[in-house]
Amino acid sequence: MIATSLDVSCARALTPGCERVIHFNNAGCGLMPQPVLDTVLEHTRLEAMMGSYEAAAKKVEAVNAVYTSFGKLLNCRADEIALTDGATQSWHRAFHAVPLKQGDRVLTANNEYNSNWLSLRRRCDQVGATLEVVPGDANGLIDIGALRAMLDVRVKLVAITQITNSNGKVNPVEEVGAALKGSNAIYLLDACQAVGQMPVDVQRIGCDLLSGAGRKFLRGPRGTGFMHVRRETLEKLDPMFIDIHSAKWTGLNTFEWKTDAKRFEVMEHNIADRLGMGAAVDHALSWGLDAIQERILGLSTLLRQRLNDVPGVQVRDQGSRPSGINTFTMEGRDLNAVMLKLRADGINTSVTNFDWAWLDLKERGIDSIMRASLSYYNTEEEVERFVEAIARV
Ligand SMILES: *Cc1c(COP(=O)(O)O)cnc(C)c1O
């Protein structure tokens, strides 16, 4: 057994799904804990019984508390948080608000998330900016020396991903923040796979903008997301959308933006899910993110050690900064078929193919990769059963 300060049996008792499946797909979507499920169902029922707008009016304080919870989770003010319907939505709201013009330079890293890369590519082409990838160091992590050498006044945006979906390595995001201090580049961080599995502190990181999803390691409902917008950065940004929620109509031809990060929201959203995401944040905070990270890293180390002993299996996570995302290949096996076979046996994993992760998999010469992503409610016994199932394939 791995030493842990976290009460794993209690975490499992509060996770109805872990009775039925070995869930190693927490980077896709975590299993909702009971308090999240209860929150979503209760509000959905209330909407059916009394009318959705009327139900919302009863929950104003509870919705406000979701922003406060995110402020605690990310170490920022509640009014620096905007809530959205997913991480892609958050990232795009942030990215398209950053002013870019011809001749500007945009920097990213070699593990940038697929959809982010497509948007960076398209918009740089549209405005005539250049898109440059900061090289990786010996561990494949963003090379801070190389980043410093690339910085000049034309660099207007540095957009990087802390942990991507196909590779467990964790970029040194605080060192990136330190390198950018004093530059005029806006720092946009995709922390979608980090929030919920480790402490993520926007003050220590020094990012201007951060995006994430509710459903992954945080264990909230699907279709939920959040973003952080640093107070001092707000006025440098020009949001892509405007509606009667994000701005006030002050005269027939005039308007004023909301004074806080809510200017990045739109009016319509699923309140039950948003309350559920808040319950997920509170649930994570009740365990503590340090304890969660320690537990996940312990289980992941065990998993990688065991997988390394299986003939034909190659663990592919590089370097010195691992996470709860563990990736491997299996010689001569169709990984999609393996994933489906495991699923039929009650073991959830996922597979990332080349066309989802060009940057990352091309560099490593891999066509497709299997991902086992662990949460703190997973157990040593589940790891052993998983590795036995892989060995049997
Ligand atoms: C999953 C993921 C996203 C997209 O999140 P959605 O909520 O599906 O939009 C963005 N970035 C990273 C690194 C991801 O893993």
Structure at a glance:
The chain is an alpha/beta fold and about 400 residues long.
Detailed description of the structure:
- With 393 residues, the protein is α/β, with parallel strands linked by helices.
- The chain folds into two domains: 8-31 and 288-392, Aspartate Aminotransferase, domain 1, CATH 3.90.1150; 37-286, Aspartate Aminotransferase, domain 2 (3-Layer(aba) Sandwich).
- Helices cover 39% and strands 17% of the residues.
- The chain is built from 14 helices and 15 strands.
- The protein has a seven-stranded mixed sheet with strand order 2-8-7-6-5-3-4, with helices on both faces. A four-stranded antiparallel sheet has the order 11-12-15-14, covered by helices on one side. Strands 1-13 form a two-stranded parallel sheet.
- It is globular and about 70 Å long.
- The protein starts with 7 loop residues before the first helix and ends with a helix.
- The mean pLDDT is 96.
- The chain binds pyridoxal-5'-phosphate.
- Pyridoxal-5'-phosphate is lined by residues 86-88, 113, 161, 164-165, 190, 192-193, 213, 225.
Structural class: alpha/beta
At the third CATH level, what is the topology name of the largest domain? Aspartate Aminotransferase, domain 2
The strand count comes to 15
Please tell me how large the radius of gyration is: 21 Å
Count the DSSP helices.
14
| CATH architecture assignment name of the largest domain | 3-Layer(aba) Sandwich
Beta-strand content bin: 15-25%
Mean pLDDT: 96
- The number of domains is 2
Bound molecules: pyridoxal-5'-phosphate
Helix content: 25-40%
Shape: globular
